[in-house]
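User: Could you check the structure of this?
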Amino acid sequence: MQIDQARIAEIVERVVESFEGRLGQEVATGGIFSTVSQAVEAAVGAQKRLSLLDREKREQLVAAMREAAMANARLLAEMAVRETGMGRVEDKILKNLLAAQKTPGTEDLQTQAYTGDHGLTLLEMAPFGVIGAITPVTNPSETIINNSIGMIAAGNAVVFSPHPSARSTSLKTVEILHEAIVRAGGPCNLIAAVQKPSMEAAQALMGHPGVNMLVATGGPGVVRAVLSSGKKAIGAGAGNPPVVVDQTADIDKAARDIIAGASFDNNLPCIGEKELIVVEEVADRLIQRLQREGAYILRAGDIDALTRAAFIVKEDGGGGCTATARKLAPNPAFIGRDVGMILREIGIDVGRDVRLAVMEVGPDHPFVTHEQMMPVLPLVKVSTVEDAIALAVKVEHGNRHTAIMHSKHVDYMTELARSIKTTIFVKNAPSYAGIGAGGEGFCSFTIAGPTGEGLTSARSFTRQRRCVLVDGFRII
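Assistant: Sure, the predicted structure tokens are below.
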């Protein structure tokens, strides 16, 4: 039997493709690849294999990820604090457990049906395919756990581009979840990442034709980038959450809750209380109670010293006829650090049990107007609750992220909710109740205010598909 040259060439090409495919798999360990292209191509194949599995199997993969994340919650928390220098191990453990336990799975995908004289129409939630996910330094493992569960429950594969400063923690999280999926009988490379995360890698991921959807959790720069990519994008951006205390509040409980929320993980969460606005009538009583509950109250001279240390001047713009603007920005060396370390920089020593510093300032102080992510809470006194609401709206900057209020007056709480229009509004509790910690509802570490999805879950990572059967399956 003779084989012509064209047939020989075809066979050789297939053998080479097969060899290259195996070689590409060999450079990957636990879903970690050398290049963005390798990671995306592997994820494309994995998602196709996932699409052949039923939803019950998908939920088994989700259960395996939950179990693995819980088993490694402490390891990942310790890695994150050691690698980034930010946050508190015990709080990051709680965040990892929260992401593992309270991120919705396949139960979040609900089919809608319409029946009538003309038959049956179904609306179902279908996967996008491969999602490119950009994750932050502030919540590295918990964001990857949260995103992975929701995206895979929805039937997608995901390629992560972590923040380079949280590289080891992020890649370890990917490896742990990848191993759990494979051990549960799922496809290899359903979760993937690049060995050396960088800005260039993130840009390559955003532009790769094999990526069908982008999800960014981080600052305004990365959100703008994904929104200008031309792909379907979800953006979880910055916040500057105010906490308002009015004259009707339970002051003792408000003080405890404010310390708990503003000091949690050294105020790294974007939902955390960043500035405290209190009606003057109860302000002194609240300050006294904050001090009794363990907060350190800064004096005027110390406030000036801390402000100089905690903020740096950055240049913005310039060139040609445009003057270079100088603006204040939080000092990266202070972000997410323990309050004891921060206060030592200005010559103040406090005990290890002190988790938060509080300082009375004016409404235009940098600690009020900037999202500073430090366990230092500025307190602003105002004359009336109406003034408090107006200031809260102003300093939240229209991010529509999170706001908190302590009050027993329904009308006041309603007015703040209507005025500030945030994605999350917490009443009479620490801020973290808004993501399911001590409050009802599910958890998310990708809170999409800019693009409107709110607290993302599996359904956020789907597209609607409509199936119409005319004059059939109408049973009444």
